[in-house]
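Second opinion, please. Please look over this fold, written as tokens:

===
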Amino acid sequence: MSISVLWGLFFSAFVAASIFPAQSELFLAGALANKSAPFWAIIAAASIGNTFGSATNWLLGRFFLHYQDRRWFPINRTKLARAEAWYAKYGRWSLLLSWAPIIGDPITLVAGILREPFSSFIVIVAVAKTLRYLVVALITLQFA
């Protein structure tokens, strides 16, 4: 078992869940195709890294509004109000989409801004992220 591959996968999944543009699926597919570690370890490294990245977004969201009156604040009040209304309408279950490209990372940030309890946040996001990596892994193994 290659610990360095698992750490690399963890890190790529963490960054992929952050506000930085990145993808971890190819790293996951490569680790599976090369049999770099047991299936469960590869899924765990990716899922935990991606969940921690989303938890970082949640944490950033908790303190984000403190700076909303600054000129450099990246979100205007209209967009923030729209995001808050959307989250209020769909609630915590919208976190099941935290795996999705483009919308997933902002959802986790908004959850922090709107003070979603961390306990419900982390459970829902961990389930969503793990299921996504399982699907990607099963698809990858069909072609490997």
Observations:
- The CA atoms of residues 8 and 27 lie 8 Å apart.
- Residues 3-143 form one domain.
- The chain is about 70% helix and 0% strand.
- The radius of gyration is 16 Å.
